[in-house]
Input
Amino acid sequence: MSKPSGDSAPLLPQSGPCTCSEPSDPEGACQDCSVFATSNSLQNLVPAPKSDASITVFVCVTCRQMLPDGDGFLQPGRDLAAILSERLSADENVNVTPVQCLSVCNRPSTIALTGRNKWTYLVGNLETAVHLDDIVTFARAYRQSSDGIVPWKERPEPFRKSVIARVPPLGFIHPEQNS
Output
């Protein structure tokens, strides 16, 4: 498991074995559903950002990719979370947060960008070495937008082709609902 340099703690707390039918592996992930046990996950919630300008980039650190020899796996999201956090550390109001699962296991690595009163983007098939600059560019454009919608032509390519979902903000009312 990769960790940020100089950090001796894992990116996520381990909360015990999964309650599914399959036993958990040594990393704490269920071998059946590949989801980390979350019995205490609600206790670990971070308070909402104090500024409406704040955004969070959630990075799935659970997704797995089998090694070519079939003996073991990689968790590319762990490296992405650490490197992205370092890269965006100087950006005011941008938070990078590892998350245990975004339920897009067939498209690692997956991220979600969210902010108060902004549309949320869920984007998959991201590789740290190939897409890091694109993720940073999009996160900055997303933060600067008033509603989270970055015009399609202004998005880096992975944010045109690898968007899994765009989810409206809480309280969204479609203009047709007011007619």
Q: What stands out?
A: Residues 1-50 have pLDDT under 50 and may be disordered. Helices lie at 76-87, 128-144, 158-161. Strands lie at 55-60, 65-66, 73-74, 94-99, 111-115, 120-123, 163-167.
